[in-house]
Amino acid sequence: MTITELFTVILLVAGCFFFLAGTLGVLRFPDLFTRLHALTKADNLGLGFIAAGMALHIASPWAAIKIFSIWLFTLLASSTSCYLIARFQKEKNPPKNRKEEG
Amino acid sequence: MDVFFTIVIVFLLLNIAVGLIRVWRGPTVADRLLTTQLFGTTGMAILLVLAGYLEDPDFLNVAITFNVLAILLVIGLVKVWKKKKGESP
Amino acid sequence: MSVLIDSLLAILIVYLALQCLLAPRLTQTVFLFFAFGLALALAWVRLGAVDVAITEAAIASGFLGVLFLDALRDFSFITSGKQESSDAANHSVSKKKPAFLSLPGVVLVLGLGLFLLITLEAVWKVPESGGLTAATEALLPESGVENPVTAVLLNFRAYDTWLEMGVILLGLLAVMAVGGIKIFPVHRKTPEDPVLQQVILFFTPILFLFGAFLLYFGKNGPGGAFQAAVLWGAIGILLHLGGRPVLTVIPRWLSQLLLIMGIGFFLMLGFLLLAGGASLFEYPPSYAGVLILIIETLAAISIAVTLVSVFVHLNQLNKEESN
């Protein structure tokens, strides 16, 4: 196993770990806002790790640019979706139990 | 290396399968919409790994296509359903 | 080892397809269909059919989702009086007995999965070359392009593609026939959410560029007019949803010209070729490459405008009915 392959394996395993964390969060967290938090942060980090691993494995500059832009677009789309979904939910039925701040 | 890629892909596919539970349980539309994010991001990861596994970078084009269009669904839902709320209060 | 991936994908696809049909609520169906499209795109990638995978990804991921949601809004308006109560009733039903755990469902899925596994095993060793692959490969140099899929779609079986464009146009005509041709009022709404505006403005050039890339790249690799058209059509839908109704600000004659441009140029070319003594759509090999690129570009623009028109008309139709 070369050093490149070792790094690919490490990066992919790290990515899988964050995907697992994101999925568990979506299933186990109690309400929509916490689920959003788990999903849009953990999964995008996981995708970043996998993207880095695969860019290393494919090892062509053109492919690396594409992979990087895939990650960038996903980050943008995902954070926007998170914001839109949260606002959508907040307008429909506002969250309760937010009085402890004041 | 191929065995390792296979394991990763299977693991990610199982992630999607488990995420389907959230589509069922809901309870709100927003919860179901949330799972499209899960499918989208995980699907991207699977496509990336498949591109490396099958050693054909052309597959990345599939990922980009899916990627830039997935946001349409979310914007569509938020805008379309908001209009409904505004018109028939 | 890859049998594991394939069988898992196959089971997932069949399961999702069944759930799409069996889901008690239509919103569930829309999101399950999104997952179904993703699984299908993955399967096409796994089969090595990148052209089909791109088309599937383009249509199933965003465009159909938006159309379905729009239709769902209309549907929920019709039954709006009962919506809340039926929702509650459905909820109690699904709480009592989730359909995906019911015995017939499990048996059906398991049986179909087993059937698929056996089929997979049976077709595992398909002969490498079959059908018309050899004939296509032999004629590829004369087609003017290097991607066999593009060669078949736009040269060898061009009339097929031409008629398909007609079908899409007919779809729009049907929508117009139901809703009536209207001149939409040009109104710029107050800018909505700033984040939404920025994201739409960011994705617009990317969609355009990537569509153009797929269109041009279609000569030598996967991609082509239909995929590019969906991406360009998505621009129009995004701008429309973001409060910038592009289609309504351009003059009627221009939008009508854009609609028939692709199919019209295709038809004129066919007649010219017939007049020149060749058969329909039999391009002279030396010009084939250029002609295909022109046809594809015009077709992509036409299809994109058609898709946006369908969406805008349906959207407008729903709005009027709810008033």
Strand content of chain C: under 5%
Number of strands of chain B: 0
Order of SSEs of chain B: HHH
Task: Show unreliable segments of chain B.
Answer: 85-89
**Percentage of residues assigned to helices of chain B:** over 70%
Oligomeric state, counting identical vs distinct chains = heterotrimer
Largest sheet of chain C: none
Spell the H/E element sequence of chain C: HHHHHHHHHHHHH
Q: Tell me about the biggest sheet of chain B?
A: none
Number of domains of chain C: 2
Query: How many runs of DSSP E, i.e. beta strands of chain C?
Result: 0
Provide the β-strand percentage band of chain B.
under 5%
Global Rg of chain C: 23 Å
How would you describe this protein?
The complex is a heterotrimer of chains A (102), B (89) and C (323). Chain A has 102 residues and is mostly helical. Chain A has one domain (3-92). Chain A has helices spanning 3-28, 32-58, 61-92. The longest helix of chain A is centred in the C-terminal third of the chain and has 32 residues, at 61-92. Chain A is elongated and about 55 Å long. Chain B is mainly alpha-helical. Chain B has one domain. Chain B has three helices and no strands. Chain B has helices at residues 2-25, 29-53, 59-87. The N and C termini of chain B lie far apart (58 Å). The model of chain B is unreliable at 85-89 (pLDDT under 50). With 323 residues, chain C is mainly α. Chain C folds into two domains: 1-126, no CATH class; 131-323, no CATH class. Chain C has 13 helices and no strands. Chain C has helices spanning 2-22, 26-47, 50-78, 80-96, 103-122, 133-143, 148-156, 158-179, 194-217, 225-241, 246-249, 252-275, 288-322. Chain C is globular, with a radius of gyration of 23 Å. The model of chain C is unreliable at 78-96 (pLDDT under 50). Chains in contact: A-B, A-C, B-C. At the B-C interface, helix 1, helix 2 and helix 3 of B face helix 1, helix 2, helix 3, helix 4 and helix 9 of C. Chain B: One of its GO terms (molecular function) is sodium:proton antiporter activity. Chain B: Belongs to the CPA3 antiporters (TC 2.A.63) subunit F family. Chain B: It comes from Marinilabilia rubra.
Topology of this protein?
The complex is a heterotrimer of chains A (102), B (89) and C (323).
Chain A: H1 3-28, H2 32-58, H3 61-92
Chain B: H1 2-25, H2 29-53, H3 59-87
Chain C: H1 2-22, H2 26-47, H3 50-78, H4 80-96, H5 103-122, H6 133-143, H7 148-156, H8 158-179, H9 194-217, H10 225-241, H11 246-249, H12 252-275, H13 288-322
